[in-house]
Amino acid sequence: MPRIVLISLAVILAIAVIVGLSATYTVSERESALVLRLGNPVAVINEPGDEEPGLHFKIPFVDDVLHFDKRNVEFNMAPAEILAADQERLVVDAFLRYRIVNPLRVYQTVRDERGLQQRLSAIMDDSLRGVIASIPSSEVISGQRAQVMNRIQLAVEAQVATQDIGIQVIDVRILRADLPQQITDRVFERMRSERQQEAALIRAQGEERARQIRAEADREAVVILANARAEAERIRGEGDGRRTAIFAESYGQDPDFFAFYRSMLAYDLALRDNTPIIISPDSEFFRYFQNQAGAPN
């Protein structure tokens, strides 16, 4: 076979393969497809009432196929600075989950998924700014975050329904809502200064209270000691009086024995510890030693 014929057959085969590949397309269960003929939609694949997923045919070089994900899609917003109702600037990072329910409407309004996400970015930005501008920053940062996200989702759903772009909003969430770094640093310094002032005030109040407690305790100690001394003197006086009464009663019963007993006590006290005593032998102090009977002369 001549070489020119082989080359011609190879070219024809390549063209046939290219045409064959251009005439077929596949749609999976996880997506839907929109067939465009010269830019005009003519068929929707894998939607209720339309053709089933799988292998399909189209007119080569005339028909185009746009594929759309049927699963829940997550769209992340770029962090944006938004002004709250109290004029505080917040850096808000949010995301949106949605599902395409009408590929034809998506194509008619935004053409493709890239255009869809651009439209969603504008809707999300407008909804975030509208809601956050009506509430103070404290509620966004650490307050009623769930209620804020519900309000934002309702605002997004309202705009999506008004614009009718062929999607269903599944969820809207705020990942992060913080003050800008430079403002955060200033707020932190202010909070630290306030806490230091509060700590100093508490310490001063504690020291003042401690001084009051110590002064009250000192006064109570003085009063208690004075009362104790007075009570001791009273008890000692009663004891002395009782002792004097006992001595007087004993003296009245037997004066001689009482005189003898008192002399013995005096001897014991005077002669204790071998204390030397210089006194006259016929002194009254030794009257009980002046005879063998032990009686005074």
UniProtKB/TrEMBL annotation:
Membrane topology, as annotated, equals:
Single-pass membrane protein
Indicate the segments forming the Band domain, all copies: 22-191
Q: Which domain of life is it from?
A: Bacteria
- Localization in the cell: Membrane
SUPFAM superfamilies, sorted: Band 7/SPFH domain
The entry's keywords: Hydrolase, Membrane, Protease, Transmembrane, Transmembrane helix
GO-annotated molecular function? peptidase activity
Q: Its GO biological process terms?
A: proteolysis
Q: Write out the function statement from the record.
A: HflC and HflK could regulate a protease.
Give the UniProt family note: Belongs to the band 7/mec-2 family. HflC subfamily.
Record-given protein name: Protein HflC
Organism per entry: Glycocaulis abyssi
